[in-house]
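To whoever is covering the structure queue this week,

Two jobs came back overnight. Logging them here so there's a record in the thread.

Job A:
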Amino acid sequence: QDSSDDIEDVSLFDADDDVSRRSKKSRIRHPVASFFHLFFRVSAIVVYLLCELLTSSFIACMVTIILLLSCDFWAVKNVTGRLMVGLRWWNQVDDDGRSHWVFEARKVSAQGGKTSSEAESRIFWLGLISCPMIWVIFAFSALFSFKVKWLAVVLMGVVLQGANLYGYIRCKVGSRKNLTSMATNYLGKQFLRQTMATEDQAAS
């Protein structure tokens, strides 16, 4: 493993150094994981939109969509999140029978040069955030158009993809306690800035 104190070769020209750094950040290191991160969830949306044109069997469409959503949930939770952005979450049961949710983020200093690339990070978060929003739109559309039979399928998409989104947001920002302290610190800083600005205006 590379340590943070290792000596690195430095380019004589800053432009060459910037280009090499950009290429490392923009390179997709896990193309297969990146592909399947989007494949299952996009396929489920495409099947939902085109299923009535392709077949008249509601059962076949429902089973296909649920299978794609289940494969997407497993792949994103267990594979793509760990490889693409260094995040993972899971549930474990202790000796007392209590269930605990664990949210873990990879430490950059411990991995050295094995940090996630910007391209993979963008692909991961774009797919993770946009697809649940699309399923929420589908849910409102099915509700207002009185397509009750499709509502269960759409809610399945919202729950499965929303669970992954919630889990990885918890991994990224920390626990709810940490999130609350971050918000409190931010509001405190904003209040302090406004107070100082008001005092400066009064003094002038």
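Job B:
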Amino acid sequence: MLGVKSQWDLIAKKIADETSRNVIAFDARCHGESPNLGELSYESMADDITKLTQFLKIDKFSLLGHSIGGKTAMTVALKYPELLDKLVVVDVTPVEKWLDPQAIKGYYLAVHSILSNPNTSRLSLPEVKQLVINALTKLDCEILTRDFLTTYLGDGDRRVVWTGKPSLDIIIENIEELIGFRSHFSI
């Protein structure tokens, strides 16, 4: 959910070298260098991909997506099958029955609550991270998820802030959509 294109640099270069194909890595909306556009749905991200390929004058392409990018790639395949040559989906399925959207939303709400608390503004980064870890532990959040979420805490202007993109507000607002995969498309 918080991945950025630069994490794919080595893989993109390897694919380009091995296949002699042009490879374009890009940040989805509300990720990395892309703007926070508010709406974060698979349909809007799929439309962004088609707009990018139209702008680049690419008629047919192969698409690789990981996690949210994988579900976005599936949406492109369902909505615009005529555009795809090949589809590669990594580490995600259309239905994630083992994920509880409300529990995950609760994790992000807990982080948001701690960061927006005026009393937190006087605490150091390690102190805020410990508060977040304690809150997530009470919510039965797995240690890997706790560690992952605390990596997006950093020093801001006189307080600890969320450094990840998308913002906590956008994640919280769209979490059900992002964890689920409500296909509105007929195959």
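Note for Job B: Residues 111 and 117 are 10 Å apart (CA to CA).

Please reply-all if you pick these up so we don't duplicate work.
Q.
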